[in-house]
Amino acid sequence: MDAHPTETAGPEWLASALMEKGALTSEWLPAFNAAPRHLFIPDVIWPGRAGMNRQDDRVIRSEEPEVWWSAVYRDAPITTQWDDGNYTGPGKGKIPSSSSSMPTMVFSMLDALGVEDGHRVLEIGTGTGWNAALLSHRLGSDNVFTIEVDETSARDARKRLNDAGFHPVSVIGDGAEGYPDGAPYDRVIATASVGRVPRQWVAQTKPGGIIVTPWGPTYGGEGIVRLTVADSESAVGPFVGSSAFMRLRAQRTTRKHVREYLEGRKWPADGRRTMTDLSPESVGDWPVMFAIGVQVPEAFPWMEPYDDGSYTLWLRDTAVTSWATVDFVPGHEEFEVYQSGPRNLWDEVVAAYLWWDEQKRPGFERFGLTVDGNRERVWLDRPDNPVPVVARP
């Protein structure tokens, strides 16, 4: 193991912290020790913060070794690539495109995977290679298959894995397609989020096998779902916690600017003015965003902040037919709304919020997902209780 430049952070400290949280179990401790995180982190990183989608400025190991080491052995995510590798710094790029996940999340997902000796596992998204190394130690490299769409990331991860003594099957390719050459698998784990479970994952998993993946609607909010595969076309299971992963590249979307919705006119254009007593602050937490997103499909929010603490919540549909704005002002009890197009997007959000409130504000642990042929449906408490979709024109 490499010598580290500070005594205040390191593998032993992080292992202790993760075990105290209950994220790292005795089953995975040997793998943690055999595949220390620092062996799988590149020299140039953007440290993250626990529970937040924010990155600090670039850190270069050769220039700031103590800062680099402390970031590696903090329970927080680390961004390792921006804009599919097209941005290298200094500073930050526009969109983070690869990372080393927060260790608590890594081991929570591995625990949910429930691997047993002899299991064959497909990992979607090699990233830095750390997850594949942990699985390789636990199951043996011959039983681990990992696929990465980014060629540079895949090559770098393969070298790190081999240098550390792990030799899983490492493939460059589209993770949405799975890896049929290694199928069938006992377990599939994804380290990128999806809004629709690729059917190839289901088809390549044995009946009774498990798929663990981040899943989230277009609107926002995202959780880890643990699906049990019934056959080549169906799977069902509960959400086991919240998450915030980068989207699988095959499922990325490009969103139109607000100017496309206004059609060259100045806001509020033809927007219909009303007032609401539901504060935009009430619909911004992750669980309620998830509940709204399931009920209000093909729509997404964006916040436009102002220096005085107020902001405008924009809502837009993916079909570029409808938009809405809600102006939040601190201390106010009513808020100005403008809506345009065939969909009254704020009204849909309000209806979805009221449903969530009536269900006693469920968190992720009460939701589940059923994959059945070409259909997917999110349910509350049990599979025969689907979450409704808000009626629209």
TrEMBL record:
Pfam family, one: PCMT
Lineage top rank: taxon: Bacteria
InterPro entries: PCMT (IPR000682), SAM-dependent_MTases_sf (IPR029063)
CC per GO annotation: cytoplasm
Single GO MF annotation: protein-L-isoaspartate (D-aspartate) O-methyltransferase activity
Record's keyword annotation contains Magnesium: no
Keyword Methyltransferase: yes
GO biological process, one term: methylation
EC annotation from Swiss-Prot or TrEMBL: 2.1.1.77
Keywords per UniProt: Cytoplasm, Methyltransferase, S-adenosyl-L-methionine, Transferase
UniProt-annotated location(s): Cytoplasm
Family membership: Belongs to the methyltransferase superfamily. L-isoaspartyl/D-aspartyl protein methyltransferase family.
PANTHER family, per the entry: PROTEIN-L-ISOASPARTATE O-METHYLTRANSFERASE (PTHR11579), PROTEIN-L-ISOASPARTATE(D-ASPARTATE) O-METHYLTRANSFERASE (PTHR11579:SF0)
Protein known as: Protein-L-isoaspartate O-methyltransferase
Native species: Allostreptomyces psammosilenae
